[in-house]
Amino acid sequence: MKNLLLFLTRYNHCILFIILEVASFILIFRFNSYQGSVFFSSANVVAGKIYEWDSAVRTFFTMSTANRELNVRNLELEQMVRSLTEQLETVQKGDSATVKDVRSQVSAEYRLIPAKVITNSLNKKDNLITINKGEADGVRPDMGVACGNGVVGVVYMASQHYSVVIPILNAKSNISVRIKNRGYYGYLSWNGGLSDIAYVNDIPRYARFYRGAVIETSGYSSIFPPGIIVGKIEKAFNSHDGLSYKLQIRLSTDFGSLRDVCVIDNSSMEERIQLLMAAKDSLKIKTNE
Question: Structure pTM?
Protein backbone atom coordinates (compact mmCIF):
# COMPACT_ATOMS: atom_id res chain seq x y z
CA MET A 1 0.00 0.00 0.00
CA LYS A 2 2.85 2.36 0.90
CA ASN A 3 4.53 1.67 -2.45
CA LEU A 4 1.28 2.36 -4.31
CA LEU A 5 0.91 5.74 -2.55
CA LEU A 6 4.52 6.62 -3.33
CA PHE A 7 3.94 5.71 -7.00
CA LEU A 8 0.78 7.85 -7.21
CA THR A 9 2.52 10.75 -5.49
CA ARG A 10 5.54 10.56 -7.79
CA TYR A 11 3.57 10.30 -11.06
CA ASN A 12 0.43 12.21 -10.07
CA HIS A 13 0.93 14.81 -12.80
CA CYS A 14 1.27 12.20 -15.54
CA ILE A 15 -1.73 10.24 -14.28
CA LEU A 16 -3.83 13.40 -14.08
CA PHE A 17 -2.74 14.33 -17.63
CA ILE A 18 -3.77 10.93 -19.00
CA ILE A 19 -7.17 11.10 -17.23
CA LEU A 20 -7.84 14.57 -18.62
CA GLU A 21 -6.79 13.51 -22.12
CA VAL A 22 -9.12 10.49 -22.07
CA ALA A 23 -11.96 12.63 -20.75
CA SER A 24 -11.31 15.21 -23.48
CA PHE A 25 -11.41 12.62 -26.25
CA ILE A 26 -14.63 11.15 -24.86
CA LEU A 27 -16.26 14.58 -24.80
CA ILE A 28 -15.02 15.42 -28.31
CA PHE A 29 -16.20 12.21 -29.95
CA ARG A 30 -19.46 12.01 -28.00
CA PHE A 31 -20.76 15.56 -28.44
CA ASN A 32 -19.38 16.36 -31.91
CA SER A 33 -21.05 14.49 -34.79
CA TYR A 34 -18.17 14.85 -37.28
CA GLN A 35 -15.46 13.66 -34.90
CA GLY A 36 -17.80 10.92 -33.69
CA SER A 37 -18.38 9.63 -37.22
CA VAL A 38 -14.63 9.67 -37.95
CA PHE A 39 -13.93 7.67 -34.79
CA PHE A 40 -16.76 5.22 -35.58
CA SER A 41 -15.48 4.67 -39.12
CA SER A 42 -11.89 4.18 -37.96
CA ALA A 43 -12.99 1.78 -35.24
CA ASN A 44 -14.97 -0.22 -37.80
CA VAL A 45 -11.93 -0.42 -40.10
CA VAL A 46 -9.71 -1.68 -37.27
CA ALA A 47 -12.34 -4.15 -36.07
CA GLY A 48 -12.88 -5.33 -39.65
CA LYS A 49 -9.16 -5.98 -40.12
CA ILE A 50 -8.99 -7.90 -36.85
CA TYR A 51 -11.97 -10.04 -37.86
CA GLU A 52 -10.43 -10.57 -41.30
CA TRP A 53 -7.14 -11.79 -39.78
CA ASP A 54 -9.05 -14.02 -37.39
CA SER A 55 -11.04 -15.49 -40.30
CA ALA A 56 -7.85 -16.09 -42.31
CA VAL A 57 -6.25 -17.95 -39.40
CA ARG A 58 -9.37 -20.07 -38.88
CA THR A 59 -9.58 -20.81 -42.61
CA PHE A 60 -5.94 -21.91 -42.69
CA PHE A 61 -6.44 -24.41 -39.88
CA THR A 62 -9.76 -25.73 -41.26
CA MET A 63 -8.60 -25.97 -44.89
CA SER A 64 -7.43 -29.54 -44.48
CA THR A 65 -10.85 -30.63 -43.22
CA ALA A 66 -12.56 -28.76 -46.07
CA ASN A 67 -10.33 -30.42 -48.68
CA ARG A 68 -11.04 -33.85 -47.23
CA GLU A 69 -14.80 -33.24 -47.29
CA LEU A 70 -14.63 -31.90 -50.87
CA ASN A 71 -12.74 -35.00 -52.03
CA VAL A 72 -15.37 -37.30 -50.54
CA ARG A 73 -18.24 -35.22 -51.88
CA ASN A 74 -16.75 -34.99 -55.38
CA LEU A 75 -16.37 -38.76 -55.65
CA GLU A 76 -19.92 -39.29 -54.36
CA LEU A 77 -21.33 -36.82 -56.89
CA GLU A 78 -19.45 -38.46 -59.77
CA GLN A 79 -20.96 -41.83 -58.92
CA MET A 80 -24.43 -40.31 -58.44
CA VAL A 81 -24.24 -38.73 -61.90
CA ARG A 82 -23.13 -42.04 -63.38
CA SER A 83 -25.99 -43.94 -61.73
CA LEU A 84 -28.54 -41.32 -62.77
CA THR A 85 -27.33 -41.45 -66.38
CA GLU A 86 -27.46 -45.23 -66.52
CA GLN A 87 -30.93 -45.40 -65.01
CA LEU A 88 -32.31 -42.66 -67.26
CA GLU A 89 -30.98 -44.55 -70.28
CA THR A 90 -32.51 -47.87 -69.25
CA VAL A 91 -35.88 -47.03 -67.71
CA GLN A 92 -38.92 -45.85 -69.60
CA LYS A 93 -39.84 -42.20 -69.81
CA GLY A 94 -41.54 -40.95 -66.65
CA ASP A 95 -40.50 -44.00 -64.64
CA SER A 96 -36.96 -43.01 -63.58
CA ALA A 97 -35.68 -43.27 -60.00
CA THR A 98 -35.46 -40.20 -57.80
CA VAL A 99 -32.14 -38.60 -56.83
CA LYS A 100 -32.68 -39.80 -53.28
CA ASP A 101 -33.02 -43.42 -54.42
CA VAL A 102 -29.90 -43.18 -56.54
CA ARG A 103 -27.92 -41.61 -53.69
CA SER A 104 -28.98 -44.43 -51.37
CA GLN A 105 -27.98 -46.98 -53.98
CA VAL A 106 -24.55 -45.37 -54.52
CA SER A 107 -23.91 -45.12 -50.76
CA ALA A 108 -24.80 -48.79 -50.37
CA GLU A 109 -22.36 -49.84 -53.09
CA TYR A 110 -19.21 -48.51 -51.46
CA ARG A 111 -17.76 -46.56 -48.53
CA LEU A 112 -15.15 -43.79 -48.74
CA ILE A 113 -12.35 -43.62 -46.15
CA PRO A 114 -10.67 -40.16 -46.15
CA ALA A 115 -6.89 -40.20 -45.72
CA LYS A 116 -3.86 -37.91 -45.96
CA VAL A 117 -0.73 -38.49 -48.02
CA ILE A 118 2.32 -38.84 -45.73
CA THR A 119 5.01 -39.57 -48.33
CA ASN A 120 4.91 -39.46 -52.11
CA SER A 121 7.57 -40.02 -54.79
CA LEU A 122 7.46 -39.00 -58.46
CA ASN A 123 10.94 -39.55 -59.91
CA LYS A 124 11.26 -43.35 -59.61
CA LYS A 125 10.19 -46.19 -61.85
CA ASP A 126 8.20 -47.80 -59.04
CA ASN A 127 6.81 -44.88 -57.06
CA LEU A 128 4.94 -45.48 -53.81
CA ILE A 129 2.59 -43.40 -51.65
CA THR A 130 2.07 -43.73 -47.90
CA ILE A 131 -1.23 -42.67 -46.33
CA ASN A 132 -2.23 -42.23 -42.67
CA LYS A 133 -5.03 -44.81 -42.58
CA GLY A 134 -4.67 -48.56 -42.03
CA GLU A 135 -6.44 -51.71 -40.93
CA ALA A 136 -7.84 -49.99 -37.83
CA ASP A 137 -9.73 -47.66 -40.18
CA GLY A 138 -10.98 -50.45 -42.45
CA VAL A 139 -8.26 -50.20 -45.11
CA ARG A 140 -7.18 -53.48 -46.72
CA PRO A 141 -4.87 -54.44 -49.61
CA ASP A 142 -6.36 -54.23 -53.13
CA MET A 143 -8.66 -51.32 -52.28
CA GLY A 144 -8.80 -48.46 -54.78
CA VAL A 145 -7.56 -44.98 -53.89
CA ALA A 146 -8.82 -41.80 -55.55
CA CYS A 147 -8.94 -38.04 -54.98
CA GLY A 148 -11.33 -35.31 -56.01
CA ASN A 149 -9.67 -35.09 -59.45
CA GLY A 150 -9.49 -38.78 -60.30
CA VAL A 151 -7.77 -42.13 -59.75
CA VAL A 152 -4.64 -42.34 -57.56
CA GLY A 153 -3.80 -46.05 -57.25
CA VAL A 154 -4.34 -49.28 -55.33
CA VAL A 155 -3.52 -50.19 -51.73
CA TYR A 156 -0.55 -52.58 -51.71
CA MET A 157 -0.14 -53.30 -48.00
CA ALA A 158 -1.65 -52.02 -44.75
CA SER A 159 -0.47 -51.90 -41.14
CA GLN A 160 -2.60 -50.91 -38.17
CA HIS A 161 -2.54 -47.17 -38.85
CA TYR A 162 -0.72 -46.70 -42.19
CA SER A 163 -0.93 -48.06 -45.73
CA VAL A 164 1.30 -48.17 -48.80
CA VAL A 165 -0.34 -47.38 -52.15
CA ILE A 166 0.88 -48.36 -55.62
CA PRO A 167 -0.04 -45.25 -57.64
CA ILE A 168 -0.67 -44.97 -61.35
CA LEU A 169 2.94 -43.73 -61.53
CA ASN A 170 4.33 -47.21 -60.96
CA ALA A 171 5.49 -49.70 -63.58
CA LYS A 172 3.53 -52.46 -61.82
CA SER A 173 0.25 -50.53 -61.94
CA ASN A 174 -2.35 -52.07 -64.27
CA ILE A 175 -5.91 -50.69 -64.03
CA SER A 176 -8.86 -51.57 -66.26
CA VAL A 177 -10.22 -48.43 -67.98
CA ARG A 178 -12.58 -47.47 -70.78
CA ILE A 179 -13.30 -44.58 -73.13
CA LYS A 180 -16.28 -42.73 -71.68
CA ASN A 181 -19.56 -43.22 -73.58
CA ARG A 182 -17.79 -45.41 -76.15
CA GLY A 183 -17.55 -48.80 -74.48
CA TYR A 184 -13.99 -49.56 -75.59
CA TYR A 185 -11.84 -51.07 -72.84
CA GLY A 186 -8.10 -51.21 -72.21
CA TYR A 187 -5.44 -51.23 -69.48
CA LEU A 188 -3.73 -48.21 -67.97
CA SER A 189 0.06 -48.29 -67.62
CA TRP A 190 2.92 -45.88 -66.90
CA ASN A 191 6.32 -46.12 -68.57
CA GLY A 192 8.22 -43.64 -66.41
CA GLY A 193 9.05 -40.07 -67.31
CA LEU A 194 6.49 -37.30 -66.86
CA SER A 195 4.16 -37.60 -63.87
CA ASP A 196 1.11 -36.39 -65.81
CA ILE A 197 1.37 -38.75 -68.79
CA ALA A 198 0.28 -42.41 -68.92
CA TYR A 199 -0.85 -44.88 -71.60
CA VAL A 200 -3.86 -47.07 -72.31
CA ASN A 201 -3.11 -50.34 -74.10
CA ASP A 202 -5.24 -52.86 -76.03
CA ILE A 203 -7.83 -50.47 -77.45
CA PRO A 204 -9.33 -52.36 -80.46
CA ARG A 205 -8.52 -51.19 -84.00
CA TYR A 206 -12.18 -50.67 -84.86
CA ALA A 207 -12.62 -48.24 -81.93
CA ARG A 208 -13.75 -44.71 -82.76
CA PHE A 209 -12.68 -41.89 -80.45
CA TYR A 210 -11.41 -38.32 -80.54
CA ARG A 211 -8.64 -36.23 -78.98
CA GLY A 212 -9.77 -34.98 -75.57
CA ALA A 213 -12.12 -37.93 -74.91
CA VAL A 214 -12.32 -38.88 -71.24
CA ILE A 215 -10.76 -42.09 -69.93
CA GLU A 216 -12.47 -43.52 -66.81
CA THR A 217 -12.44 -46.69 -64.71
CA SER A 218 -14.33 -49.57 -66.29
CA GLY A 219 -15.74 -51.18 -63.15
CA TYR A 220 -14.55 -54.61 -64.34
CA SER A 221 -12.97 -55.38 -60.96
CA SER A 222 -13.78 -55.03 -57.28
CA ILE A 223 -11.14 -52.31 -56.87
CA PHE A 224 -12.78 -49.30 -58.53
CA PRO A 225 -16.43 -48.59 -59.27
CA PRO A 226 -17.06 -47.54 -62.88
CA GLY A 227 -16.92 -43.93 -63.95
CA ILE A 228 -14.02 -42.47 -61.92
CA ILE A 229 -12.06 -40.18 -64.23
CA VAL A 230 -8.47 -41.08 -65.11
CA GLY A 231 -7.52 -38.53 -67.75
CA LYS A 232 -8.04 -37.37 -71.35
CA ILE A 233 -6.71 -38.70 -74.67
CA GLU A 234 -3.86 -36.70 -76.23
CA LYS A 235 -2.43 -39.02 -78.90
CA ALA A 236 -3.01 -42.44 -80.44
CA PHE A 237 -0.35 -44.90 -81.66
CA ASN A 238 -0.36 -48.32 -83.24
CA SER A 239 0.59 -51.18 -80.94
CA HIS A 240 3.77 -53.18 -81.64
CA ASP A 241 1.80 -55.96 -83.35
CA GLY A 242 -0.48 -53.51 -85.19
CA LEU A 243 -3.62 -55.20 -83.85
CA SER A 244 -4.68 -52.48 -81.42
CA TYR A 245 -4.19 -48.84 -80.42
CA LYS A 246 -2.03 -47.42 -77.68
CA LEU A 247 -3.38 -44.15 -76.30
CA GLN A 248 -1.33 -41.44 -74.62
CA ILE A 249 -3.42 -39.69 -71.98
CA ARG A 250 -2.90 -36.72 -69.70
CA LEU A 251 -3.75 -37.74 -66.15
CA SER A 252 -6.37 -35.72 -64.29
CA THR A 253 -4.67 -36.27 -60.90
CA ASP A 254 -1.86 -33.86 -60.02
CA PHE A 255 0.49 -36.16 -58.11
CA GLY A 256 2.89 -33.31 -57.35
CA SER A 257 0.34 -31.55 -55.12
CA LEU A 258 -1.50 -34.63 -53.87
CA ARG A 259 -2.50 -34.25 -50.20
CA ASP A 260 -6.01 -35.60 -49.56
CA VAL A 261 -7.26 -38.94 -50.91
CA CYS A 262 -10.08 -41.43 -50.33
CA VAL A 263 -9.78 -45.19 -50.02
CA ILE A 264 -12.72 -46.91 -51.73
CA ASP A 265 -14.24 -49.81 -49.80
CA ASN A 266 -16.14 -51.50 -52.62
CA SER A 267 -17.04 -54.64 -50.64
CA SER A 268 -20.41 -55.15 -52.29
CA MET A 269 -18.80 -55.35 -55.73
CA GLU A 270 -16.26 -57.84 -54.39
CA GLU A 271 -19.08 -60.01 -53.03
CA ARG A 272 -20.86 -59.96 -56.40
CA ILE A 273 -17.68 -61.00 -58.23
CA GLN A 274 -17.07 -63.83 -55.74
CA LEU A 275 -20.66 -64.99 -56.21
CA LEU A 276 -20.24 -64.91 -59.99
CA MET A 277 -17.01 -66.91 -59.78
CA ALA A 278 -18.69 -69.45 -57.50
CA ALA A 279 -21.55 -69.80 -60.00
CA LYS A 280 -19.08 -70.37 -62.86
CA ASP A 281 -17.23 -73.02 -60.85
CA SER A 282 -20.55 -74.72 -60.07
CA LEU A 283 -21.46 -74.79 -63.76
CA LYS A 284 -18.07 -76.32 -64.62
CA ILE A 285 -18.57 -79.08 -62.06
CA LYS A 286 -22.04 -79.90 -63.40
CA THR A 287 -20.73 -79.94 -66.96
CA ASN A 288 -17.96 -82.35 -66.04
CA GLU A 289 -20.47 -84.62 -64.33
Answer: 0.63
